[in-house]
Specification:
Layout (H helix, E strand, L loop, with lengths): L1 H23 L1 H15 L11 H25 L4 H8 L2 H13 L5 H18 L7 H6 L4 H25 L6 H27 L1 H9 L1 H24 L2 H7 L3 H13 L5 H20 L1
Length: about 290
């Protein structure tokens, strides 16, 4: 739902304006979610105290997410952007490495195999029909678009690990409250950072964002709900498991595409969805 709303907004606000919508209009809903879980969780007590580790992880994750978006947008400006976007999907493999090195999150051999299979499925779904061959993928590895895509995936992976690190750094008995608290801080920081940049360089975009409040409220609400689920899951489980299972988003995206944009699957895309399903079953079944 958020992606569909942002896709509609991008035509009028541009990519960065649509990205600001996600943070600016999502912040009030994130705050309401924090209030709800804080009141609803009896053992929560006072809101967590701020620690240097929490602030550090939040800043790293927030900046990484903005950088990842910028790299992905830059990748889409390249001639063979589809190849770069496919390489961005290596985020799942990269996040498993980052989680192990930075947080000590270990993954089993079964989980690692599921991650690789799911990633292969996503690449098949993402690549255009003329590029779906091992030779094309191998040749494209050193291209500018591919490097931008891998960089974007790395930044998205670092953001996910950072958000888990932020939640784990808080001293609270409720992991749900920790996740909601981290979400509010992250969205506030991203709103200030990206909003400040746009006010400085492209002030009319900010004005347009404020005028498009009706659709933006929908995008913000759906984005906040999705982020609340992401943050809670990543506080509970290693990020590699969460991000791999989160690839189920592609199935919902396809349903939206079929319903709204009348898009159809090619045989290669169907094969990709089958591989993705096998990977998801591996993650859930092993758990």
């Amino acid at each position: 739902m958020r992606n569909a709303a942002q896709r509609h907004l991008t035509a009028d606000l541009g990519a960065l304006g649509a990205t600001l919508v996600r943070f600016l209009y999502g912040l009030p809903f994130a705050a309401l979610w924090l209030l709800a879980v804080w009141i609803g969780v009896s053992e929560a007590g006072a809101l967590p105290g701020i620690t240097a580790a929490f602030l550090g992880w939040t800043v790293i994750a927030s900046v990484s997410q903005i950088a990842a978006t910028a790299l992905l947008l830059r990748c889409m400006e390249e001639r063979n952007f589809a190849l770069g976007v496919a390489y961005a999907k290596t985020e799942i493999i990269q996040v498993a490495l980052f989680g192990l090195v930075l947080l000590g999150d270990r993954v089993s051999v079964v989980t690692l195999a599921a991650i690789v299979v799911a990633t292969a499925g996503v690449v098949l779904v993402t690549l255009p029909s003329e590029s779906r061959s091992l030779a094309t993928i191998a040749r494209g590895w050193a291209s500018r678009a591919a490097l931008l895509g891998v960089g974007s995936g790395a930044a998205f992976g670092m953001a996910a690990v950072g958000y888990r690190g932020a939640a784990l750094a808080l001293e609270t008995q409720s992991i749900v409250v920790a996740a909601a608290y981290s979400l509010v801080w992250a969205q506030a920081f991203q709103t200030i950072l990206l909003g400040g940049y746009l006010l400085w360089r492209h002030a009319p975009v900010v004005v347009a964002v404020l005028r498009a409040w009706r659709v933006s409220m929908l995008a913000g609400a759906m984005g906040a709900i999705g982020s609340a689920c992401w943050f809670t899951a990543m506080a509970l489980e290693p990020v590699a498991n969460v991000r791999t299972l989160g690839l189920i988003e592609l199935y919902f995206s396809y349903l939206v595409s079929r319903r709204l944009f009348r898009e159809r699957l090619t045989p290669a895309e169907l094969a990709g969805f089958v591989l993705l399903a096998i990977g998801l079953i591996g993650i859930v079944g092993y758990r």
